[in-house]
Amino acid sequence: MTFRTPGFGRRLGSGRTRLVLPVLVVLAAVLIGFLVFDAVYTDLLWYRSVGFSSVYTTRWQARLVLFFGAGLLMALVVGANVVVAYRLRPAYRPLSVEQQGLERYRSVIDPRRRLISVVLLGLLGVLTGSSVAGRWQVWLAFLHRTSFHVKDPQFHKDISFYVFTYPFLRLVLGVVFATVILSFLAAVMVHYLYGGLRLQGPGDKASPPARAHLSVLAGLFVLLKAFAYWFDRYGLVHSERGATTGASYTDVNALLPAKTILAVIALICAVMFVSNLLRRGMMLPGVGFTLLVLSAVLLGGVYPLLIQQFQVKPDELAKERAYIARNIAATRQAYGVDGAAVRQYGAQPVSDPKQLRTEGEKLGGVRLLDPNVVGKTFEQSQQFRPFYKFPDILDVDRYMVDGKMTDTVVGLRELSGPPSGQQSWVNDRMVYTHGYGFVSAYGDHIAPGGLPDFITGKMPVPPGERIRVDHPQIYFGENSPEYSIVGGSGQQEFDYPDQSPARQHSTTYGGSGGVRVDSFFRKLLFSTKFKDKNLLLSGAINNKAKVLYNRTPREMVHRAAPWLTLDGDPYPAVVNGRVLWLLDGYTTSNGYPYSERMSIGEATHDTITETRSAVTRQADDHINYIRNSVKATVDAYDGSVTLYQWDAKDPILKTWMKVFKNTVQPYESIPPELREHFRYPQDLFKVQRKILSRYHVTDPAAFYSGEGFWEVPQDPAAPGKRQPPYYQTLAMPDGGGERFSLTTVFNPRDNAALAAFMSVDSSPGGYGRIQILEMPRNAQSGSSQVQNGFDTQVKNDFYALKQGTRTVIGNMLTIPFAGGLLYVEPVYVKSTGKNSFPQLGKVLVQFGGQLASADTWEEARDHILGGAGTGSPVTPVPGGQLNDAARRAIAQLQEAVGAYEKAQKAGDYPAMGEAWTRIKQARDALAAAQQAKPGAPAPVPSGSPSPSGSPSPSGSPPAAGPTS
Question: Which residues contact 480 (CB under 8 A, 6 or more apart)?
Fold first, then answer.
């Protein structure tokens, strides 16, 4: 028995309850609409704050045009074919089991036919529009395309056709193809549902109207295929069939005529399909389709394969020589390495000691401070408070210090958040809003104790600083919070700590950056954006307050110029008293004909990008053209973004300057003070060195054999990972004097010897000039071989350094010197404590087979130039036991290490320096004790009591003697 509550069923669908569902739907639509508006409008406010609102509106306009254009095209064409198919339905449908089954579906669909069609076509239009809208760059670049004034060697078309026009044509063909295919499928479904197509029953399986309709659609498809075959001919310039990228012998002599013939055949087949409107039957369309398929298989597949197998392979070099030459020329041009100067070097290095000393007098300082190692040292020495942070990778720049252009290692003291235990919404968002200070150190000067010799970094910034900084506050940086409320909140923003721990200095943001939060509506918008109710409810935010967001330099430039590929390493520079972030922007393409394609992510991958967070790894996008076309700056105080034209000849840059007018400043507007801090970008250099590892070979026959190819060596400090390039000031053999350069080395392929040295000039006078010094075969040791020599022949120094510490290998710098190559490598040591940091321990030098190890660069250089070499070999202690002097030195070393760790925990830097001096003295004494012959007097550490009880005459560490 079933019990029912009287009137229960009626009450469910009557009265106010009927309004619940519509109200919920309306509320959901309003909420979704508000969230979309919030995201769009807050982004627009940010673009207005940095002066790039035209970029935002232009991009959205392009997206909307493509979205509605492609979506409406798809929906209208498919919808029209559905309507045509419905109107062509037969008036009479024979009775059959099939039609009886379909009748049930028709009875359900017919009353709701329009609603179902609108929903499905709307969904189809949205999906199509969303997909095409993402290709807005292809469309805008095509509309504003700029000529390269260079023609490809096969079709003699301007390169702009392949970079701008060809991708757009493929996009249009793809959309039209999809529209015709979906129209055909939709028409088939409607014809089948309403009896125009049948699978069962006697007679024709298709009604004449259905057959005619579908024949027209099939004919349109084949006609589009004819166009596709024709445009595929131009795609052959990107073929990978031959020995190199580009149209090969088989492509030009077999596939090119085959594509032309297939286009003609497809055109004839399209006529055959359309002819079905005039005559009944499927014979002509069937013949046409069969002909097209057979032609595609035979002409497009079998024939080129036979040509490749029986004509090209037996004599490949002769057949492909001209096409290899095309590839070499195009690749060198596309990657900007066609002007690289290659010269033979290293055949006769100087060996005469007097001449070496003369050459040595011309040598300036060497950058011993490794920016990839000393980030933690900067942090411990310049942190001052635990809520400040330095990046793990610092940057190298150059500044005029005391009247001399000096290589410097630089970093910004950014904020990591409130002190531990002091986190709150007010502290997080209103008090701790910015970092403070530009910190720099000499690249070639090391302070006592192996610490950096700092040029700037004091807190507060004193007047008359050697590098003037007017606004040391860092509101926009790589470690900035997601958002901060500044400028008009009731809280004073923490600026920098006083010498007294109980006091602090505060400031109020006065920059032009940020978006005002001067109304309840804007508070609501940003509260929704950041999902933070406190922003809406806080009474500490007044009408002068601003919100800072989207604050990292790389993100800011990417938003301002979405058409650029950005270098992975933004770096800070002080220009006219302001701290600026400098970023390099690349214009790239994968459509340059005959140019070798590569993954930019793989080409730029090395030790730094794999292990460090401060450098962004590039995406694995494939390119075959790149230019460093834009230099961008972001002001660390007010967040202003400026884009400067750098490569005035680049057609892709000119195209985007026409798309986004007045967003890129002309080359002439670059301030000279800013130009002095431009560096040749690392990611571009890594891409070019990968290209030059093969494309330094310009003879087609030699390129085909591949014997002269090079490779980038492994990092001596991190085996298994590619060695990164290094910035340093050096003098190349061309006599142009010292220049700030980016350098790398090459090995022969599968060989550890050195093949070549490569540098590119970053100085204003010769910026971008690539020079390659090619070495005689197997005449020069490679970096791994030099490192092996350092490891084995200066093992006593390493042994002494490792007593209670860990060694850290610094960058191995390669310097052209005296007709050969001089290798310099700093070795750092760090204690095993929790807050340990690297300090310079030894400087290793190698030249002409001679090795030297010393405490300073000058000492090591003097050993090399004086021909001292590495001295006598180590004499082991008899019986494998330590003598009294060695035991005494080890005890002193352990005591000094303990004193150093104690001073480190206390933050007592003078005591750390004194302890470090004692460590080096004990280390040298231990090394001397190991080399002493049996019965020789025991060596005494400098500054310690001598055997007679009197102090050593020298209170400083002894000069390091020859080691082995």
Answer: 414, 415, 434, 435, 474, 548, 551, 552
Asked whether the beta carbons of 70 and 129 are under 8 A apart, the reply is yes
pLDDT given for residue 16 in this prediction: 62
**CA–CA distance, 638 with 381 (Å, rounded to integer):** 28
Q: Which amino acid is at 375?
A: G
State both tokens at 777.
């075969």
CA distance 772 to 760: 9
Integer Cα distance of 27 and 331 in angstroms: 58
The CA-CA-CA angle for residues 130, 135, 140, to 5°, reads 125
CB contact at 8 A, 434 and 473: yes
Cβ neighbors of 86 (< 8 A, separation 6 or more) are 113, 190, 194
pLDDT of residue 909: 66
Query: If residue 823 lies in a helix (H) or strand (E), which one and from where to where?
Result: strand 820-831
- DSSP annotation string for 646-667: --TT-HHHHHHHHHSTTSEE-G
Residue 369: is it exposed, middle or buried by C-beta count within 10 angstroms (0-12/13-18/19+)?
A: buried
428 three-state secondary structure: helix
Contact in structure between 806 and 351 (CB atoms under 8 Å): no
Burial of 344 (0-12, 13-18, 19+ CB in 10 A): exposed
| 170 residue type, one letter | R
Phi and psi based region of residue 412 (left: phi greater than 0; alpha: psi -120 to 50; beta: remaining): beta
Q: Which of 780, 839, 16 has the alpha carbon at shortest distance from 381?
A: 839
H or E segment and range at residue 304: helix 303-307
In the chain, where are the structural domains located? 57-206, 215-334, 482-550
- CA dist., res. 273 & res. 250, Å (int): 32
Give the Cβ contact number of residue 472 at 10 Å: 24
Which tokens hold the place of 820?
């050969």
**CA 860 to CA 864: how far, in whole Å?**
6
Q: What are the Cα distances from residue 352, in Å, to 274, 734, 803, 866, 870?
A: 89, 22, 38, 9, 17
Q: How many CA atoms lie within 13 A of 439 on its CB side?
A: 28
pLDDT at 931: 59
Distance CA 675, CA 672 (A): 5
pLDDT at res. 864 = 84
Both structure tokens of 548: 């800072």
Instruction: Give the Cβ contact number of residue 960 at 10 Å.
Output: 21
Is the alpha carbon torsion for 81, 86, 92, 93 positive or negative?
positive
Mean pLDDT by runs of 10 across the 964 residues of the chain is: 46 60 87 94 96 96 97 96 91 68 77 88 96 96 97 97 97 96 94 80 75 91 95 96 95 96 93 77 77 91 93 94 97 96 90 84 86 91 84 94 92 88 89 94 90 92 90 94 86 80 81 93 95 90 92 97 96 96 98 96 89 82 96 97 97 98 96 96 97 96 94 87 93 88 95 94 92 89 88 72 79 93 93 83 89 88 67 33 65 74 69 78 73 45 34 31 29
DSSP-derived 3-state class of residue 341: strand
> Model-level pTM?
0.86
Separation CA 762–CA 678 (nearest Å): 7
| pLDDT value, residue 551 | 95
**Total residues belonging to the chain:** 964
Q: Which pLDDT belongs to residue 912?
A: 75
Q: Is 106 helix (H, G, I), strand (E, B) or coil?
A: helix
CB 614 within 8 A of CB 602: no
Residue type, 805: T
Task: Tell me if residue 828 falls in helix, strand or coil.
Answer: strand
For residue 756, give Cα distances in angstroms to 748, 749, 759, 777: 8, 12, 10, 10
Measured CA to CA, the distance from residue 140 to residue 135 in angstroms comes to 9
pLDDT score, position 113:
85
pLDDT of residue 7: 47
Rounding to the nearest 10 degrees, give the CA dihedral for residues 887, 891, 897, 903: -160
